[in-house]
Every structure is written in structure tokens, then in C-alpha cells.
Amino acid sequence: MHIQDALGDWSDRPGPLYARLSAALGAAIERGDIPPGTVLPPERSLARRLAIGRNTVTHAYAHLRDRGILETRQGSGSWVAGARRTGEARSPRESLPVAALRNPAALIDLATAALPAHHRLRAAVAALGAADADTAAALDAPGYHPAGLPALRAALAARLTEQGLATDADQVLVTTGDQQALSLLAAHALPDRQPAVVETPTSPGILDVLHGLSVAVRGARPVTSGSDELLALIDRVRPGLVYLVPTLGPHGRVLGADDRARLARALADRDTLVVDDVSQAGLVFDQQPPPLAACAQSDNLVTVGSLSKLHWGGLRIGWVRGSAPLVAALGRAKARADLGTPVLDQVLATRLLPVEDDVRAERVAVLRDQLSHASAALTAALPEFRWLPPDGGLSLWLRLPTGTATAFSEVSARFGVAVVPGGVLSPDGLADDHVRVVYARPPQVFDEGLRRLAAAWVRYRHATDDQPVLL
User: Fold this and answer.
1) SS3 state of residue 415
2) Could you say which architecture CATH assigns to the domain 3-80?
3) Could you tell me which of 317, 308, 276, 270 has the C-alpha nearest to residue 295?
4) Where is the HTH gntR-type domain (predicted)?
5) Phi and psi dihedrals of 381, rounded to 5?
6) Is 35 in a helix, a strand, or coil?
7) Distances in Å between the alpha carbon of 300 and those of 43, 161, 189, 269, 360?
8) In the CATH hierarchy, which fold is given to the domain comprising 130-354?
9) Which of 169, 201, 399, 451 could lock 386 by a disulfide, CB 3.0 to 4.6 Å apart?
10) Burial of 103 (0-12, 13-18, 19+ CB in 10 A)
11) Which of 459, 461, 466 lies closest to 402, judged by CA?
């Protein structure tokens, strides 16, 4: 577990700041979240990541040493007592803060890029209670469909064909969300832990998957700014997997038609599995672009999608579109993992696909209004921040005028608003001068979150490395 996850809402505790940190560290050690022998981060490093003064960490560590919980040796750092030192005192990849786990009653969540359930989904849920033929047929069967409910696989294939990517049902695998799709693909493409290439910034999900596989990850600039750097990196590294989001990545941009076709043809010539994540394609403001695989016929171009972004975050239905042999191999791996995605969720998804265009039109209209409101509010409240209007999606990619997003997000959380620091969306931390802020919230909720964010920025920008950010 990452140390900041283990600490949780540490600053909400009573007492001086050093005592709050000491108590949170002690509790995490007692729970076993930070096991004996674990080397803790150096004082300056932890202070920077928590946006507090170094002296605060020094006093917290000293208090734990006095209680016999920590051991320290000059030149070797501090580690949890009770076992020999394990690991190294290096900074692991930051984990994505999950606002729902951090006191949701007090926190305004501008971090989670998800929408509430659309009214058509609510109606479809209600209709599941009806004894229609499709639901009855699904309930009469044993319920094990490792590759997905046949009706849903056929419906997804038809939908992709309509979007310009000719697809048969045996080329589609239904997964439990797009995160499972990425896990299956990464395990398949990287059996010997070959390196992987992603964009910077990218999806936190793929970084979590690759981090779990202990794969070396290399980052390139987003493909919206050109593909030459990406192709040169692929040729140099020779990765087993390339993961791209040319349609509404964290930066909110969509790769144009000509550049998309040119990139697809170039990638089709490379000997690597290329994953094109189109999970947010339904939220593009203008015309929805085709997947990369529709621009160049090649078995190494794989498409991953999800119904969660458009319809509801709680609808954990994802899919993989690839060659039939690849889908069959992934299906065997999925069968070993869970025997199949829940069938009633798939019945629900099958009912939503025919109305997806209507859902998309309604979602986009609301998002345009919310973006207009958020843009005006941000310009007034945080005029020093910079961003480009997105081509769709749920978030804004804001550039800080100074400082690091990781430290600023810690201060923001203590002011009661969650945002995503860019460092967790990059394999090398190079995006830590940006924060991702979800604008897709009711205006009154966004305005209150922005008020807290602006107050946090005032406090943060006056802090120095050696001055604690006191509340």
C-alpha cells in the first residue's frame, strides 16, 4: 500500500500537525498497512508529498522512535521496527486518490470522472423486473458466459460496425469494466515483462495494471501533438504493449481524422500490440471519431471500450475488440479469473445500446452547459491557471502557475476538495505541473468545490519547502 493511502485523512485528527502525522503513521503500522521492516520516505521527501514542513515530519518520526515504533540509523533512514529493513527508500508511483474513500460527507469530489445514472438506464433497470423473453432466456440458462452474453457480443459488434469498424461477434470479449480488459491484455502481451509505452499523461488504470506486473513503462507526449516521438520511442524500446488514448485522454483532446489515419497506418507496421482506449468516445462534443483499427486493417490494433462513462460509473461493462484468436485467448484467461461478467448487467447493457445515440445527445448537451459555467467560474477564481477548452469528456486539465500538483492536491484535500494531481497520470511524474479537475458537476457543487480550491491555492502558494501549511 502506498504510504499516502495508508495515512488516509491524517490531517483531520486533533492536535498539532506533527502529532496528527505521528498518530496516523502509528495507526497504519498497527493495522499492518505499513509492515515491520518497511523503510519510510526521507523526511524532506514525505514533507514535499504531504505539503507540510520538514520539521513536522522530523518531529513525527522522533515521536515514533521514542515509542519504539521506528528505528533510525545515520545514512540508512528510518524503518518500522520489528523486522530487518525491507525495500529501499525510494518514491513509488503515486496512487490515484479515491474521493469516495476520504470522508465523502465533508469532501467535494472534483476528482472522480464519472456521471450519475442516466434516466434511460434507470428505466432499463426497472424494466428488468418484467418477465420478457430476453430476461427469461438469460435466467433459464446456467449463467456462465466467460466471453460475454451472446446477445451483448452481437450488439457490440453491430455498434462497432456502424462506427466504421467491421466486427463479428467472435471478435468481441465482454469484460467487467475496462480495467479488467486492460489487465487481460497486459498479461497476454507482456508474459516476460517486456517494457510498455504509454502517453504522458495517460489513464491511471493502465499505470496501475503495469505497476502491478512490475513492467518498465516509458512515456511519450500525447499523440494529439504529433506521432513522431511516439513512433521513435516504440522503435527504440520495442515494447510488448503500447497503450494510447487518442480520444479524450486526460488532456481532453481528440486526434484529428488525418493524423488518426496516419498514426494507425504507422502503428499497423510495428510488431507490438497497440491498445486504443475509446472508453470516453461517447462524450465527444462533435462527431464521434472512429477507432484506430477502423483506419488500418491489422490484427495488432486492439480497441477497448466501456459503457461506464456514458451511461453510469456503476455499470461495470467493458469490452475488447480484436482478432478472433486474440479474443478467444483472452476469454480463456477471463474464465480462469471470474467465469464471466454478471449476466443481469449484460442484459441491461444490451437494452442500452439501441438508445445510445439518444443518451449521448442528452449527455453532451448537459456537459456543454456545465463546461461553459465552469470555464467562467475558473477564470474568475483562479486566473493564474491555464487550460485549453476540451473536445469533450468530463474534466479540465489545468496547469499550475508554480509548484507541484501532488503537494497542492494534499492541501486541497485538507480544504475539503479532491482533485487529481497530474503526477499520478504519468509513468515518470512529468505531468505534476497539472491537475485534473472534473467540471461535470451541478453548478452549485462545482462552485463550492472551486471556492475551496481557490482558498487552498492561496494557502499553498505562500508556503515554502520549510514552512508547514497550517490550517
Assistant:
1) coil
2) Orthogonal Bundle (1.10)
3) 276
4) 15-83
5) -85, -35
6) coil
7) 46, 18, 11, 9, 29
8) Aspartate Aminotransferase; domain 2 (3.40.640)
9) 399
10) middle
11) 461
8 A C-beta contact, residue 335 and residue 323: no
In eight-state DSSP terms, residue 285 is S
The residues spanned by each domain of the chain are 3-80, 99-117+358-461, 130-354
Please tell me the distance from the alpha carbon of residue 178 to that of residue 401, in angstroms, as a whole number: 34
Other CB atoms within 10 A of residue 237 CB: 18
Which residues lie closer than 8 Å to 310 by C-beta, 6 or more apart?
115, 118, 282, 283, 356, 359, 360, 363
Buried b (16+ CB within 10 A) or exposed e, 260-279: bbebbeebbebebbbbbbbb
Per-residue pLDDT band for 36 (boundaries 50, 70, 90) equals confident
Q: Which CATH architecture has domain 99-117+358-461?
A: Alpha-Beta Complex (3.90)
Q: Sign of the C-alpha dihedral, residues 221, 227, 232, 236?
A: positive
Integer Cα distance of 95 and 420 in angstroms = 10
The stretch 93-115 carries a mean pLDDT of 65
225-243 per-position pLDDT tens digit: 667 889 999 999 999 999 9
C-alpha cell at 444: 452549485
Angstrom CA distances, 181 to 171, 173, 205, 306, 308, stand at 14, 9, 10, 9, 13
Residue 309 C-alpha cell reads as 462513462
pLDDT-derived band at 302, boundaries 50, 70, 90: very high
- Beta 77-80 vs 395-399: how paired, if at all? unpaired
Cβ within 8 Å of residue 452, ≥6 positions away: 108, 412, 415, 416, 417
Contacts of 214 (CB under 8 A, 6+ apart): 193
Could you check whether 3-80 and 99-117+358-461 share the same CATH topology?
no
* Residues β-bridged to residue 276: 244, 303
Pairing of strands 241-244, 273-277: parallel
CA angle 189, 305, 357 (to 5 degrees): 160
Q: Average of pLDDT values for 413-422?
A: 92
DSSP state, residue 224: G
User: Coil, strand, or helix at residue 455?
Assistant: helix
Q: Please provide the DSSP assignment of 379-401 as one string.
A: HHH-TT-B----SBSSEEEEEPS
